């Protein structure tokens, strides 16, 4: 059974889009469904996706929200941070995820440098993701300093997912990937979260913050919170799919590995190489006549 943040027992959490929108199959999850799930005390998962094939797998597995994260900078493009990736880098990935899914709400990160300078820049960048890729919402990092951008996007009809705590686009300012929100910084994060809700954000990601703070923020808001390294007290949880599948060599402490895909891939490709070397593959079964 899932448990709401107020401690009351909720309905069974299947993690499926059908559960989130009350059994109405044949349509995508919407931000209204996400809000309704919060009211019912239902917890739900969010997973990153960057291509059509994995998006289809996650969509069919019932993941209600897929995030085309700027984490693609590292897991797709091989950079050591999210900062180098651009709108043009992410657009084709986002379009592929939309095409590969049919039920999930698809959210795209606005990458570093694509929204910070002005509300107009944010609107232009978000509009490209909505028009060219077909995503259903965008995600931005930061608190009160980006309220004008959030308000402009919401006024234009673009759903906004906010992101507080360890915001990877600001990693250089933080001096590395460190827990955020301890001590007085927790009060600042709380104020940011409330301001973002007031500005119209439909949800907020809390990354690498103390579990007690994440629980307090969740209790103080009416919009859903999505945790990543923020303890069990949030409304939802998100992980990078390569982390949860065991492809990342040195994942963060908050990552739980649900599979050893790296080991399976290593075994499979070694078996393939060995059979090619010995002539065991291809056989007549794998040949045309």
Automatic annotation (TrEMBL):
GO terms for molecular function: 3-methyl-2-oxobutanoate hydroxymethyltransferase activity; magnesium ion binding; methyltransferase activity. Residues 1-22 are annotated as: Disordered. 3-methyl-2-oxobutanoate binds at residues 70-71, 109, 139. Homodecamer; pentamer of dimers. It holds the Pfam family Pantoate_transf. Mg(2+) binds at residues 70, 109, 141. This is 3-methyl-2-oxobutanoate hydroxymethyltransferase. It is found in: Cytoplasm. CDD domains: KPHMT-like.
